[in-house]
C-alpha cells in the first residue's frame, strides 16, 4: 500500500514537471536541412530529452549486438564451470558411496571442464587409489606435490598408498615431509610420533610431546600421561646399564603421574639395588595406598634383600590390614603367609574371596594351602580344577596380548601406552609365575614379581 502511494505521488510529480517545462515562455529557432522550426522552450527541452533517450536505446541495442559473441562465450564458460562443479560433487559422492570407478570417470570429466581445479585432480588420485591403480595414483599425487596448495593433500595420499602397499619406510618418508611442510598437521605428527615410539627413540619422541600445544584440561592431562609413559620407557631401558639415569627418568614420570605403577616399580627396584630400602619402601607404601597394585605389594615384601619369609610376612602386615579390604591385598598377604608356612593366616586372608566368584589366583593359592597345611590332595585338586574355570585376575593387557610386565608399546600394533591393568579377555602371552621365590640380594632389572600363578597361553 505504501509502495502504491509512493508510485502515485512520484507519477504526479513527474507529470507536473513535464507540464511546467512545456509551459515555459520563449521560443527556440531550429534550422535543419532547409527546414526551420520555432518550438516553445519547454517543448524543445522535452524533444531534446526524447531524442537523448532514443539515442541511448539505439546504442544499447548496437552494443548488445556487438558484445553478443563475447557474452555467449562467457555464458559457455559459466555453463562448463557449473557442469564441472556438479561433476566434481557427484564424483565425491560416488567415492564415498563405494563406487570408485564412477568417481574416477566423473573426476576426469570435472578436470576436463575445470583444468585449473586442484580438487578434481586430487579426487581422481583418490579414486585411483581406491581402485588399486597404484601407479596412476602415484603419478597424480607426485604431480600435485609441485603446488604449495595441494602438496600436503598429495603427501597424505602418498602416505595412505604406502601403508596400503605395506611399505612402512616410504610411508614414514611422506609423513616426515608432511610434518616439515605443515608442523601442525595432526596425522603427520601422530605418524612420526608412533614411529619413534615403535623404534624406541624416546628422546626424539619426548621432544615432540614437549613441543605440543595443549589448550584444554583434557589435552594437558593427555600430554602429561604421554610424557610420563615415555619417561618410564626411558627408565626401563636404562635400568640395567645406567641405573642413576633410569632413576631420574622414573622419578620424572612419577612427578607427571604420581600413581603410575610401572615408574614406581622401576624407581623402587633401583633404590633397593642401591641399598636405599627406606626410600623404596616409602615410595611403595604411597603407591600401594593409591592403587592397591599386587606388584607393588610383592616388591614391598622383598624390599630388604635376604630377608626371611617370616620377615617378609611381617613387612606385608605394615601395609595390609587384617582382614584384607580387597582381593589383591588378600592374595598378597596369603602369598607371604604361605611362604612363611603360616597356614591359618593365609586361609583367613582369602576367606572373603574364596566364594563362587573366586578368581584363578585365589583358587590356586587355596590349592597350595590345602596341600601344604593338611596334605589334602583331593581338596587341592578340586581347587585346581576350579581355577581352570574361574575368572581371570587382572594383568597387563594390550591388543589381546597378556604380559607379566608392563611395556611402553603394544607388541601387536606398536601403539604407545597400550597396556592396561585389567582382566584380560583372552590370553596369548604369559610367562611362568614365580610364586614363593625369594629374590637375590641384587634385584634383576625389570622383574615383574607376579603374585598369581602363570596361565598357559590359549
Brief descriptors of the model:
single chain, 458 residues, 3-stranded antiparallel beta sheet, two-stranded antiparallel sheet, 20 helices
Q: Can you tell me about this structure?
A:
By secondary structure, the protein is mainly α. 65% of the residues lie in helices and 3% in strands. The chain is built from 20 helices and five strands. Strands 4-3-5 form a three-stranded antiparallel beta sheet, with no helix packed on it. Strands 1-2 form a two-stranded antiparallel sheet. Strand 3 and strand 4 form a beta hairpin. Helix 1 packs across helix 2, helix 7 runs antiparallel to helix 8 and helix 11 packs parallel to helix 13. The radius of gyration is 42 Å and the shape is elongated. The C terminus is likely disordered.
Strand tally: 5
Major sheet details? 3 strands, antiparallel
Q: Report the structural category.
A: mainly alpha
| N-to-C order of helices and strands | HEEHHHHHHHHHHHHHHHHHHHEEE
Low-confidence segments: 427-458
How large a portion of the residues is in β-strands, by DSSP E? under 5%
| Radius of gyration, whole Å | 42 Å
Multimeric state of these chains? single chain
Number of helices: 20
Helix content: 55-70%
Q: pLDDT average, as an integer?
A: 82
Q: Biggest sheet, strands in spatial order?
A: 4-3-5
- General form: elongated
Please report the distance between the alpha carbons of the first and last residues: 87 Å
Amino acid at each position: 500500500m505504501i509502495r502504491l502511494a509512493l508510485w502515485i505521488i512520484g507519477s504526479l510529480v513527474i507529470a507536473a514537471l513535464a507540464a511546467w517545462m512545456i509551459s515555459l515562455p520563449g521560443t527556440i529557432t531550429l534550422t535543419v536541412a532547409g527546414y526551420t522550426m520555432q518550438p516553445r522552450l519547454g517543448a524543445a527541452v522535452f524533444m531534446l530529452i526524447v531524442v537523448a533517450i532514443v539515442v541511448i536505446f539505439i546504442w544499447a541495442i548496437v552494443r548488445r549486438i556487438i558484445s553478443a559473441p563475447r557474452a555467449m562465450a562467457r555464458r559457455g564458460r559459466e555453463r562448463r564451470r557449473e557442469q564441472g562443479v556438479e561433476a566434481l560433487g557427484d564424483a565425491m559422492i560416488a567415492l564415498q558411496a563405494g563406487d570408485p570407478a564412477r568417481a574416477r570417470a566423473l573426476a576426469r570429466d570435472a578436470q576436463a571442464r575445470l583444468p585449473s581445479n586442484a580438487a578434481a585432480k586430487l579426487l581422481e588420485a583418490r579414486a585411483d587409489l581406491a581402485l588399486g591403480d597404484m601407479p596412476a595414483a602415484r603419478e597424480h599425487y607426485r604431480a600435485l606435490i609441485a603446488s604449495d596448495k595441494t602438496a600436503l593433500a598429495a603427501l597424505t595420499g602418498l602416505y595412505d598408498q604406502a601403508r596400503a602397499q605395506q611399505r612402512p619406510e616410504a610411508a614414514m618418508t611422506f609423513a616426515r615431509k608432511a610434518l616439515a611442510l605443515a608442523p601442525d598437521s595432526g596425522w603427520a605428527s601422530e605418524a612420526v610420533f608412533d614411529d619413534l615410539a615403535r623404534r624406541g627413540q624416546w628422546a626424539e619422541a619426548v621432544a615432540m610431546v614437549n613441543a605440543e600445544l595443549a589448550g584444554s584440561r583434557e589435552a594437558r592431562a593427555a600430554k602429561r600421561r604421554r610424557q610420563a609413559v615415555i619417561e618410564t620407557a626411558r627408565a626401563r631401558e636404562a635400568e640395567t646399564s645406567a641405573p642413576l639415569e633410569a632413576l631420574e627418568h622414573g622419578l620424572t614420570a612419577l612427578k607427571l603421574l604420581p600413581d603410575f605403577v610401572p615408574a614406581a616399580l622401576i624407581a623402587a627396584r633401583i633404590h633397593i639395588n642401591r641399598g636405599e630400602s627406606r626410600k623404596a619402601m616409602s615410595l611403595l607404601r604411597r603407591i600401594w595406598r593409591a592403587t592397591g597394585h599386587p606388584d607393588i605389594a610383592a616388591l614391598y615384601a622383598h624390599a630388604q634383600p635376604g630377608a626371611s619369609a617370616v620377615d617378609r610376612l611381617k613387612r606385608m602386615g605394615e601395609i595390609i590390614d587384617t582382614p584384607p579390604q580387597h582381593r589383591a591385598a588378600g592374595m598378597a598377604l596369603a602369598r607371604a603367609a604361605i611362604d612363611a608356612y603360616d597356614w591359618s593366616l593365609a586361609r583367613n586372608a582369602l576367606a572373603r574371596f574364596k566364594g563362587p566368584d573366586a578368581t584363578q589366583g585365589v583358587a590356586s593359592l587355596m590349592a597350595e594351602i590345602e596341600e601344604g597345611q593338611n596334605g589334602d590332595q583331593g581338596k587341592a585338586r578340586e581347587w585346581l580344577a576350579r581355577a581352570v574355570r574361574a575368572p581371570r585376575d587382572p594383568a597387563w593387557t594390550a591388543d589381546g596380548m597378556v604380559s607379566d610386565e608392563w611395556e611402553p608399546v603394544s607388541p601387536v600394533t606398536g601403539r604407545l601406552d597400550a597396556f592396561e591393568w585389567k582382566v584380560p579377555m583372552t590370553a596369548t602371552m604369559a610367562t611362568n609365575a614365580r610364586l614363593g621365590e625369594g629374590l637375590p640380594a641384587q634385584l634383576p632389572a625389570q622383574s615383574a614379581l607376579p603374585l598369581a600363578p602363570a596361565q598357559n597361553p590359549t
